[in-house]
């Protein structure tokens, strides 16, 4: 199963952005979605931004993830 995660854009350098969620920072390509700017929420899948979300939708999605998966790391 694949899961796309909403993350907030904190820096942009050409086609690569730094994105963050819950203290986790990653690099992601943002050139597939036009007009991305710092502060936007984007859906990240496999290191690529695939869409922009409005902040309310992003927060609701993250709330649902926390409800489904809990705040504790899952053990194998």
């Amino acid at each position: 199963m694949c899961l796309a995660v909403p993350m907030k854009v904190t820096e942009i350098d050409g086609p690569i952005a730094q994105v963050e969620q819950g203290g986790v920072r990653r690099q992601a390509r943002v050139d597939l979605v036009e007009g991305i700017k710092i502060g936007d929420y984007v859906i990240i899948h496999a290191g690529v931004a695939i869409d922009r979300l409005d902040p309310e939708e992003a927060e609701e999605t993250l709330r649902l993830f926390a409800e489904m998966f809990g705040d504790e790391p899952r053990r194998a």
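DSSP finds one helix and five strands in the chain. The radius of gyration is 12 Å.
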